[in-house]
Amino acid sequence: MARSKRGLLLLLTILFFIGAQAQNMKLALLVYNGGGDWYANPTSLKNLAVFCNDQLHTTFSPVEARVEVGSPDIFNFPFIHMTGHGRWALNDAEAQNLRKYLEGGGFLHIDDNYGLDPYVRPALKKVFPELELAELPFTYPIYHQKFNFPNGLPKIHEHDKKPPKGYGLIYKGRLVCFYSYETDLGDGWEDFEVHRDPAEKHIAALQMGANLVQYAFSTIGEKQVKPVEQ
């Protein structure tokens, strides 16, 4: 049964105050419709969970949860990751469910795995018609958690050889969705054998991922700074 927004916020606040120490808490992967390969990075969340356990002293299960965007189960996961190479479509019920989740204290990280960008913006517009994605300044706290990224997101894969950008969706002063573009953090989290990335890129991707997780838990219920003006 779906929790009320107040109930979700209370749950997330409790999880924050116990330092994400709940046994077998899971990072969640968003399952979505439209034809995109939401399953594109099968080892990424496992490695991020292990890295967070080591560096942030969390106790995440290495086994990810998979949750459908329209399911009431979405309310059980404070941090949800989404990836893919394209085609994300939301129906009205899914958009409403995702909005309730984000309004209630949930956090969504979307990582463009190359090709997802044309679908991210209209989908988020359906969720929050009144909001705009805005690029976050390099001074934004998400880049300065356990690990310091003074120049913003690390560049993991080249793609179109554009600089990496981090966008935020701000609802009532709270960052509810972080969108990483032209970086491919999720690929960087994967096992070495998958992409054979240099060790420094793998570590940088995991460090930025840990920042996302730490930030999502440590800012529950707090007002946050504004994004850079566009």
- What proportion of the residues form beta strands (DSSP E)? 5-15%
Low-confidence segments, given as residue ranges, are 1-6, 13-22, 221-230
Strand order of the largest sheet: 2-1-3-4-7-6-5
Tell me the major beta sheet. 7 strands, mixed
**Would you give the CATH topology?**
Rossmann fold
Total separate domains: 1
**CATH architecture descriptor text:** 3-Layer(aba) Sandwich
Report the strand count: 7
What is the 3D shape?
globular
What's the order of the H and E elements? Answer: HEHEEHEHEEEHHH
Number of alpha- plus pi-helical segments: 7
Taking all Cα atoms into account, the compactness measure Rg is: 16 Å
Approximately how much helix is present in the residues?
25-40%
The pLDDT mean sits at 86
* CATH class descriptor name: Alpha Beta
CATH-wise, what's the superfamily? Answer: Domain of unknown function DUF4159
What is the oligomeric state here? single chain
What is the distance, rounded to the nearest whole angstrom, between the alpha carbons of the first and last residues?
Answer: 40 Å
How would you portray this structure in words?
This protein has a single domain (5-218), classed as 3-Layer(aba) Sandwich (Rossmann fold). The protein is 33% helix and 15% strand. It has helices at residues 5-17, 44-55, 92-103, 117-127, 185-189, 192-195, 199-218, and strands at residues 28-31, 65-68, 79-82, 107-111, 134-135, 165-171, 174-181. It has a 7-stranded mixed β-sheet with strand order 2-1-3-4-7-6-5. A hairpin with a 2-residue loop joins β6 and β7. The longest helix is centred in the C-terminal third of the chain and has 20 residues, at 199-218.
